[in-house]
Structure formats: structure tokens, C-alpha cells
Amino acid sequence: MVATAGCGDDSAGGDGAGKDGSRPYRIGMIAPLTGNYEQLGRDHKKAVELAVEEINTAGGVLGRPIELQVRDDRSEPNQSALAFNDIKGGVDVVIGSAFSNSALATIPLAEDARIPYVSLAPADEQVKPIRPHTFVVPATSAQYADRLLQYFQAMNLKKIAVAFDGRSSYATAGLIGMRDKAGYYGLTLVASEEFQTGISDFTAIFNRVKNSGAQVLTVWATGPPAVTATKQYATSKLALPLVMTGAQASRLFLDPAGSAAEGLTIASSIGVVGSYLPEGEQKEVIASLSRSFRALYKYAPPQFAQDGYSAVQLIAAAAKQAKSIDRAKVRDALENIRLVTPNGYYAYSKTDHNGLTSDFISVNKVDGGALIPTDWAKSQFPAAMR
């Protein structure tokens, strides 16, 4: 199913039919399959391959099988750019790296090549400002920030603190989102603490947050720093809630954090807590992915898998809507897509290349090692249903 063939005699820029008029629909995928974000990338790849297999089994896209070409960016931005240059001549569309820094390094190349680039990274800079060929699948950092601010307002937590990884585009965007919208919700950002990815001791940060008068602390991070902060928070006697974001909404965080994560607040896509949703199309779409993914891999699809699966569904839907695999026509169709996926309901437009709203983010508590929606989140679910 996963192929690395070149372009052959067909032009990936157009319909490029071979003698039988039905050459494969070629999707390129760049993923961190080694390096710091290996586990995240492997979950993405599993879900993308599952979605491709399901579509091909059902007859493909416009009668064409999907051919998937995968490259490893090694969790490094420069390798993502090299990977893109390696496949750009032989694919019709590219699913981009989940590592925000890699995506931001690659997007200018995709724009120059005029290839639809469907990103699995959540950094806001990808779509602010709008870039013609770039579309984002996960909820962005700003959307997670907005949802958490809504929750804090509802919980009467008026003074908030943020600790963020200054080397992460995702984390920096999260800080900016909270800083810029706190006042809108009647909240005050009383502390913003920057740390670096290799941090090993949060003691000083916790002490400054404690002295700031904050009522809640949100940590914006990816990878090991979130686990380190959680374990040290458990013994810090910092008497205020610790909140994590969508980057921690999987076993990749919960397993290494262990018992220290109990009681934490973690935001996630609604797909992570799909079994708690009201009956309807959204719940069934999530359940369908869960059944298929569990059957293959013996564990529930994490948030990252839902992103990858949704990306393929969006790309396939755009080609069907365009009645073509031509890059320009698929790009135009993406701007008009309306689709329910495991991540939620997408409505891309000329002014919105993210397509989701914060309604599709749930705020959860860790209970028994699992994410359980808060009562507030459950009260918000009806607004997200289509």
C-alpha cells in the first residue's frame, strides 16, 4: 500500500491519467518517524495508512487507488524540507509533519510549488495569515487557548499563569493566545514563565507562579518537558490546578507521567472522549475509527491518529467534490469542504484554513489513567454536534 515510486510518465500537477485514464491519486506524507517525535509520527502514519486502505477497499477516489508515499523528517525542520523536495514532483497533495517547527520550515516550499499542503501540526502561524495552499487539520494553539479560557471563566479562575517552551512554535502560540484573549473573558495573566525544551527542574518556575497569586497554571509544551513538570508538580505543594493542552492528550504523555497525572486537567479533541458524546453522526464517526484502529493495533486511536485519519478523509472529499485530482482544483475544493471527521466538523473557507472551531475541544480530568470529560465539557458537547 505504501509506495515510494516516482512520477513516471504522469504529471502530478494535473489529472495525468495513464493509458487506462486512472493513474493513482498520489498522496505524499512527511512524518517524524525517528527522533524526539517518533511516537507521535508513527501514530499519524498508522491512521493515514488505515484511512487509505479503507478508501481503496471502497473503490478509491474517483475510481483511482490512493498511492501513499511516506518520508521521515527525523523530527528536524531541515529534514522535513528535504523530504518535501524529494517527493514534490511525484505527488498531488502532501500531508505535512506533526512537528510545528518542521511544518513552518516546509510550508514556503509547498506554497512555491503550488501543492496543497494539509498539515498535522497545530501552530497558528501556518494559517495566520492565510496561505493559499496550506490547510491545518488539528485545532490550533489559539483555539486550545480560547477553550481553556472559557473553562477558567466558568470555574471562576480569574488569575492565570502560563509556563511555555520558548523553542516550540506550538507552545509560544499558546502563550500568545492566552495573553491576547484573557481580558475578553475577564481574566488576568499574572505570570508567564518561559523555559527551554531540555529543562530538568521546574522548581523556580513553580515558586514564581506561587508568588504571583495565580489560581491556575497552564503548561504549554510538547514531549518530555510536560512529563517533567507533571512529576515535579506532584511533589511541589503548589496549591493550584495544573492544566495541560492537546499535546498531552494521549498515552505518550499519560504512560510516562503515571500516577503523577491523576487529577490533572487536559484539553483534547472531542475524538479522544467520543464515547461520552450524545448519539449522532459525530459520535458514530469517532466510534468507526476506534473500532478499525483497535482491531489493527490493539489500542484506542490517540488524538494524533485522529488527525492523520481526518487529513486523508478531507483530501479524498476535496478530490471527489472537485471531480478531479488536479492540484489547483483540489485546493479550491478544500476551501469549500464541509465534512464530519473524528476530529469534528470542518468548514474550511477562503478566510479560514483551519476549519474547526473551539467547540470541538473537550476539557477533561485524568481519572484512573484515562481522560474523562468535565461536567462543563459535557454541557458544551451539544454545541459541537452536527
TrEMBL record:
For biological process, the GO terms are:
amino acid transport
Annotated spans, Disordered? 1-21
Keywords carried by this UniProt record: Amino-acid transport, Signal, Transport
Q: Where is the composition biased (Low complexity)?
A: 1-10
Superkingdom of origin organism: Bacteria
A UniProt-annotated Pfam family: Peripla_BP_6
Transport as UniProt keyword:
yes
**Domain Leucine-binding protein, residue spans:** 24-355
Family statement: Belongs to the leucine-binding protein family.
Q: What is this protein called?
A: ABC transporter substrate-binding protein
